[in-house]
Write a structure and sequence with these properties.
Layout lengths: L1 H12 L6 E5 L3 H13 L3 E5 L2 H10 L4 E5 L7 H10 L7 E6 L4 H10 L3 E4 L4 H55 L5 E4 L2 E8 L7 E9 L2 E9 L4 H13 L11 E4 L3 E4 L2 H14 L7 E9 L4 E7 L5 E3 L5 E3 L17 E5 L5 E5 L1 H4 L10 H12 L5 H15 L10 E7 L4
Parallel strand pairs: 1-2, 1-3, 3-4, 4-5
Antiparallel strand pairs: 6-7, 7-18, 8-9, 9-12, 10-11, 12-13, 13-16, 14-15, 14-17, 17-18
Pfam family, one: Response_reg
Keywords: Hydrolase, Phosphoprotein
GO biological process, one term: phosphorelay signal transduction system
Length: 423
C-alpha cells in the first residue's frame, strides 16, 4: 500500500526523469528529514553518511538526483561533486548542494565543481520540491536530447556504411566506365587519334571513342550526356555499346557489306539512328550532344555531324583556325529529327579538336567563361610544342590553372584530338 501511495504522489507531482535520489549528509537527523520528504513524494531514496561512501554507491548504482551537504568530515560535498562529475557515465545526474553559504564567491565555486543548484539550510520542503521539479525538467530535456543524439549517431553510422558501399560501387563503376575507352591514343599510319576523359566525380556523363573497320577508314566521336552522376554514366555505357570499337556487328555506325567487310555509315544517318533508339525508350529522359566524324585517310576527306555539341576546332598546319559545324539539335530530345552533314578536307599537318562544354563553359578566376575564343587561344599556345596526349594533358592543365580558386571542376571535361598525315 505504501508503494502505491508513493507512486500516486509521484504521478501527481510529475518529477519526470528523476526516480532515484541519493542523499549525502553526515548528520543522521538531516538525512532522516530529507528522506522522509523524498519518500513521501514517491522517490526511491539511497543514503550515504560521507562523500567517500556516496562515491562508491554511485559507481555501481548511479542516481538521477544527488542532494549533498557541503560541509562534511573527510571528503567535502564540493570534492564529492567534483569526483562525481569526473566519473565515466552515459547518464547525466542532477546535483544539488546544501549549504549555509550564500556568498556569490562560494556559489561560483560550487558551479565550477559541477553542481547544478543550491539550497540554503535550514531547508523548506516546498522549496526543495520546487528545485527538484526544475531539475526534473532539465533532466527530461537533457535525456531527450541525448536520446536524439544517439539516434542521430546511429543514423550517421548507418549512412556511413551506406556511403562506403556506394563509394565502393562508384569506384568499380569508374573502372567499368574507363574500360569503355580502352586506349587513349592510337596511330593510323601517319595520323593519330588521342583522347581525354576527366569526370568531375567518380563517374561522369562524357564519352569519347574511335574505331576503324579497315585501312584508311576511321571514325571518332565526342559525346556529352545531359546531367551528371550515375544516370548519365549508365547512358554512356549504353552508348559505348552502340559505338563499340571491338564488336563491329553491334556498332550502329557500321554496316557489313558482301559478308566480307564493314563500311562506315554516313554520320548524319548514325545520329538519326541513335535518336530513334532513344526516342523509342519511353523511360529514358536523358539526351546527349555529339560530334561524330569519319575521315578517309587517303585524301583527308572529313565528314561529320554536329548534334548540339560545341563546334569542333580545326587547326590548320599554316596557323589558321576554323570552328566547324552549324550546331544542330541534341540526340534524344525530339522525334523524327534530321541531322546535317558538314564536310571539309584536311591537309597533312592539320589537326582537329573535338571537346565537351566542360572546356568552353568552365568558370575562370575573373568570373568569365573560357568560351570559344579562350579555347582557341589555349589550343594555339599548346599546338606548336605538344602533340597527342601531351597536347590534351597540357590543355587540361591550363584549364585547371585558369579555374576560379577553390571551385574545382563542376562539369566533366573530355576531348578527342585528331592529327592528320596523308596515308
Amino acid at each position: 500500500m505504501a508503494e502505491v501511495s508513493q507512486a500516486n504522489a509521484r504521478a501527481e507531482l510529475d518529477f519526470g526523469a528523476i526516480q532515484k535520489v541519493l542523499v549525502v549528509d553526515d548528520s543522521r537527523l538531516q538525512r532522516r528529514i530529507l528522506v522522509a520528504s523524498l519518500k513521501k513524494w514517491g522517490f526511491e531514496v539511497l543514503e550515504a553518511d560521507s562523500g567517500e561512501a556516496a562515491l562508491n554507491m554511485c559507481t555501481t548504482d548511479p542516481p538521477d538526483l544527488v542532494v549533498s551537504d557541503w560541509i562534511m568530515p573527510g571528503m567535502s560535498g564540493l570534492e564529492f561533486c567534483r569526483s562525481f562529475r569526473a566519473m565515466d557515465s552515459d547518464q547525466y545526474s542532477y546535483f544539488i548542494l546544501l549549504t549555509s553559504k550564500s556568498e556569490k564567491q562560494e556559489v561560483a565555486r560550487g558551479l565550477d565543481a559541477g553542481a547544478d543548484d543550491f539550497l540554503i539550510k535550514p531547508l523548506e520542503a516546498d522549496e526543495l520540491r520546487a528545485r527538484i521539479s526544475a531539475g526534473a525538467r532539465i533532466l527530461d530535456m537533457q535525456r531527450e536530447l541525448s536520446e536524439k543524439n544517439r539516434m542521430i549517431e546511429t543514423a550517421l553510422d548507418e549512412l556511413k556504411l551506406a556511403h562506403d558501399a556506394i563509394d565502393k560501387d562508384l569506384m568499380q563503376a569508374r573502372k567499368i566506365q574507363e574500360s569503355l575507352v580502352p586506349e587513349l591514343m592510337r596511330d593510323f599510319g601517319g595520323s593519330r587519334v588521342s583522347m581525354l576523359l576527366k569526370p568531375c566525380g567518380h563517374i561522369g556523363g562524357d564519352l569519347v571513342g574511335m574505331f576503324s573497320p579497315g585501312v584508311n577508314r576511321l571514325g571518332f566521336y565526342s559525346i556529352d550526356v545531359s546531367g551528371h552522376g550515375i544516370t548519365s554514366a549508365m547512358m554512356t555505357a549504353r552508348l559505348g555499346g552502340y559505338l563499340s570499337s571491338s564488336h563491329f556487328d553491334q556498332n550502329l555506325a557500321m554496316e557489313k557489306r558482301f559478308d566480307k567487310f564493314y563500311a562506315l555509315l554516313p554520320p548524319e544517318q548514325v545520329a538519326e539512328t541513335l535518336n530513334s533508339r532513344l526516342m523509342a525508350d519511353a523511360g529514358v529522359e536523358e539526351y546527349f550532344t555529339m560530334v561524330y566524324a569519319i575521315i578517309d585517310l587517303r585524301n583527308g576527306h572529313l565528314k561529320m555531324v554536329q548534334a548540339g555539341h560545341p563546334h569542333p576546332l580545326l587547326l590548320r598546319g599554316d596557323g589558321g583556325t576554323q570552328f566547324l559545324g552549324e550546331g544542330g539539335l541534341p540526340i534524344g530530345l525530339l522525334p523524327d529529327v534530321t541531322f546535317q552533314r558538314t564536310e571539309t578536307y584536311m591537309k597533312p599537318g592539320d589537326k582537329l579538336l573535338l571537346y565537351s562544354d566542360g572546356f568552353t563553359e568552365c568558370s575562370l578566376a575573373d568570373g568569365t567563361l573560357l568560351e570559344e575564343d579562350g579555347l582557341r587561344a589555349m589550343a594555339l599556345d599548346c599546338a606548336p610544342d605538344r602533340s597527342g596526349t601531351e597536347f590534351l594533358d597540357d590543355m587540361f592543365w591550363r584549364l585547371t590553372q585558369a579555374m576560379a580558386p577553390g571551385n574545382g571542376m563542376d562539369d566533366d571535361v573530355s576531348a578527342v584530338f585528331f592529327e592528320y598525315d596523308k596515308a
